[in-house]
Amino acid sequence: MKIIIEKAIYLGITFLILCVLWKVVAEIWDAFVPLNYKTNLLAAFVVTPLIIVVSFILSSLVFKFMRI
After folding, report:
1. Is the predicted pLDDT of residue 13 greater than 90, yes or no?
2. Cβ contacts of 25 within 8 Å, gap of 6 or more
């Protein structure tokens, strides 16, 4: 039961970090990147998976520091 709760907290933290990163990248993207089909494909296939990976990495670091 403890492991399930830990995984739920981990996924919750990951989702919160993902939302924050998504909003930050969206603001930067809207300010500096022109919208056309090439940049939309770049966002869909490069930036979005990168944001997801970074959110999992940051979440694991936060979770490790919370345990200490």
Report:
1. yes
2. 47, 51
